[in-house]
Each structure stands twice: as structure tokens, then as C-alpha cells.
Amino acid sequence: SEDMVQAFVRNGTSEANLIASMEHGKSIYQALALTRVQAKGDEKLEKVYSMMVAHHTADLSNKQTPIQDRMAAVNTVYMLTSSIGYHVTNATQVMMVTIPKLVGDFGTGNYGKTLKFQTKIDISKAPKKYQPLLEELQLRQLLDVGVEQDIAEMNRSETGFAIVDKGSEAAGKFAHRLYQIARMVEAYNRVSTATAAFELAQSQPAVTKRLGLSATEYAIGVVEDTQGNFSSIDAPLLLKKLPKVTGQYRKYQFMMAWVYSNAFTKATVGVSPEEKAAGRRTLGMLLGHAGLFSGAVGIPFSNMIASLFMGIGEGDEPEDLERWIEENVEDSTLAKIISRGLPSVFGVDMSTKLSQQGIFDPFPYTDYEISEDAIKQGFFEAIAGPSGATISNAIRSHSYAKEGNAWRAIEYGLPKGVRSIMESYRLGTEGYSLRNGDVVSSPGDFSGWQLVVNALGVPATSINDIKWRRGQQYELVKWFGEEQSRLRKAYVKAKKENNRDDLRGLIDDWKQLQSSKDRVRPFFNNERSALKKTPVSSLRKASKKQLEREAKYLEQLRRD
Asked: Most buried pick, 172, 252, 254, 301, via CB within 10 A?
């Protein structure tokens, strides 16, 4: 029965921990004791020792978190594994990270040799020269990343609520089946990475000799560095201290940040010319692949770099790198390639899926805005992690239901994979509409190919373009409205204080703001009704209306 299986898993896990402690406990604590002696008196080494002890202590904790495990499973199905687009994106990890690393270490002449893909995970059937390597990877939990998930699946705790437990069991089985696809893709990536790294290391032993590694050690290191070690042992200490739901999906972000940081460090302060050259090649390939497949918007810090060297940000209105490229590159196809990458030409927009823009962002899903609501939302998303997005979509689904929009309510209530199919059907039959029901793009604007691509969970260029353009228009209209409101309030205050210098300055600022509307109006297809200029008289009327309101308030409060 299921109870017997769960009991077996718990008992087996406990026995495995006991055996491991008996076999390796003595050597571990002897090593820690020796490390403490060697680190004594050296402040940096003492910090390293303290961190090692903290990691070891955290790893000994085996606290069960059934509720958080359920939430994490729901997030994974809702946001990732139910979508074909996720698995397609996951399969590009070798291209985006592993190949730049291998080319960096062995030189650009070996680019073709890095394209070695194998999918067999049955070690006994693998070529004999790979078997020791694959066995070592399996022992380190670097080959089949689904083993821990299998154990967790059989080790679910009861909540005491029959409905919750039955629903959780059904969702768990569904999630487990979906996870097998991700598991297969991960195995594909890791075996390909290991075998390609191993062969290059064997064919060019001078490189691994300089690094002080054997071919097997080098291959294992490449798998860890570019595919990640997602076991609990290798998790950053911060994630071990945080709740599971807060740190979900963060290991990948930590890994990618380390890959870029390590390449940059080697390129700039490497201990030898060879190391600096390898760092420059790796960093160049990382940025090149990010730019090729996700465009300028997918390169880390591209917005910051662009604002420094390309004149972005010189205007009063909020600037956007993609909008700047569109305005300054005459050829629309070339502009699209530069901003969103080469796949966009073929109707596939990977600029959001493969973007590296947010890897150094502590809260990549939070919109930084100084307002009370934004701060509350940011705090909630930081604590809840991906669960925050799931909960937000559930709230959005409820909101659509209250408005009577049953289709959109169902969309946001279902996992990503199903939602994408429903969205494509809605776009193909109703067009793209705003929340208030206004249709901004007719069904004929989307080709069958674009709708099929979007239904598979892979972003379609034309659909993403409409969403992005509408989002930019909304932000611009909102910004101009807020700026005009700010200037009106400042004018009313200056008028009260009879500050003529401030009044003249505010009038000049108002005129400059209206001129800025002309600069961005082409982004609204030069529609005359978009961003209409507001005359200076609006400032004077604001002051007069404010005085009238104050008089009315005094009249209402005046007693006989």
C-alpha cells in the first residue's frame, strides 16, 4: 500500500543518513577540526571555516515541510512543466552556457567540437570510456536530477484534511508525470555537457594540466558550473536559511550569476595570461550567445550600458532600450533582430525566455516603483517567491470572474500550458483586447503560425510585439499624467506663496513636458488623439480650482 511505501522511504532515508554518518562522520569532523586549527588567526580563513560549519549544520537538518512542498509542486506545474515552451527553453542551456565555457577554456577553434549531444542515461549501455565519468556524476547527483523529486513524491505527509490530501495526491501524480519531461531534458543537457567536456579535455591535456585537473574532474566541474548542482548539499547558505517557497528557482539564478561573475573576474584579474584569455573568450561567448538568441534586451546590464553610451535617457520621458532601437534603426527587421535576437525573424521571440537581464536582480519579478502599493507588492513577492506570482494570477482570475469575463478567468486559473492554448484561441477568434473590452488588434492580425507557436508556450513575435507596445504606451501615458499632476501641485503651492521665480520655472517645465510628447508620439503611430498637448492655462485653472475647493470646504464646515 501507499502507507507502506512511504514508511519504507522514511525508514530507508533514516538508515541511509545513519550509515553515512557512521562511515564518514569521523573523517568529516576530523577535517573540520583540522581546518579550524589551520584557520586560527587568519580572519578570511576563519570566515570560510564558519561558513563550512554553517553549511554542514544546515545539511544535517531534515525538517519536513509538506505544505511548502505542495506549494512548490503547484508552482512548478502552474508556471513551468505544463508548458512545452519551458522544456524548449530548458534544452537551450547547453547552447547558452556550456558552449561558451568550453570555447573559453579550449579556444574558439573548438566551437564545432562542443556541439556533441547524447541522450542515453543508461550508464551500462554508454561507451566504456564514459562510464566512470557518468557513474561519478550519478553519485554526485549531477546526472539524474529527478531522484530527490521521486523520493519527495513518495514521502508526502498527511495534512489531516481529506479533500486537501486527495487533491494533493492527484496533483502530485500529474506533476510527477510532467516532471519526467524536464528530467529527460536535464539528462540530455548533462550527458551532452559531460561527454563534450571530457573529450575536449582528453584531446587537449595541456589545458586541464594547467588547471590542475584530470579529464574527469574537469568534465564534472563543467557540469556543476553550467548545468548546476541542484542537490540540497550544494545550495547557497542563504537558500538553506530561507523558507523553501522563498528560494524556489533561485539556484539557477545563483548559478548564472556565478558563471558571468567568474568569467569577468578571470578576464580582468586572472593570475596568468592564459586564464585572462580564457575569461575573455568565455565572457564574450556568453554575451554573444545572449545577444544572438535574445537580443540586446537579453544582455545583462544592457539598459544601464545603453544609457551611458547611446544617449538613452537624455529626454524627459522614461526611456526604453528596445524603443530607442526601433526609433534609431530604419530597417524594421534589423531593429527587431538587434533588440530581440535572430529567432524573432522566424516568428519566435525568445527575448523573454532566454534573457539574462535579471540574473543579478535580487527580485527579478518585482517592478521597482516608489509607491505604497508597489512596496507592498514587492515585499509580498520577495517573501512568497514564485508562489506570489501564482497567488497573483489566482486573484486576477477571481477578478475577471467578478467582471463576468469567464474565459479570461478560466485562463488565469489554469496552468501555463493550457492557458497558452486558450489565449491563442481567444486571439484567433476575438483578437487582442484590453481589460475594459476594447479590441486593439483584430484576429486577422495574427497568422496561424504565430497562434500555433504561442499555443505551444513559445513566445510569438507578433503577439509579444503587441503586448510590449501596448505596455510601453500605457507607461508613457501614465508617466505624462503623473508629471502633469506633479507640476500642477507645485504651481498651486508657488501661487499661494507668490513665488514668481518658481512660477516662471514651472511654466517652462510645463512647456518642455508638452514638447516631449512630440518626441514619443511616433511610437503611437502619430495618432493625433494620443498624448494631446495640454495648454499652460491648465496650470492657472488648477490654482483657481484649488481656491474654489478650499472656499467650498470652509463653507461646508462653517457653523451658524
From this structure: 172
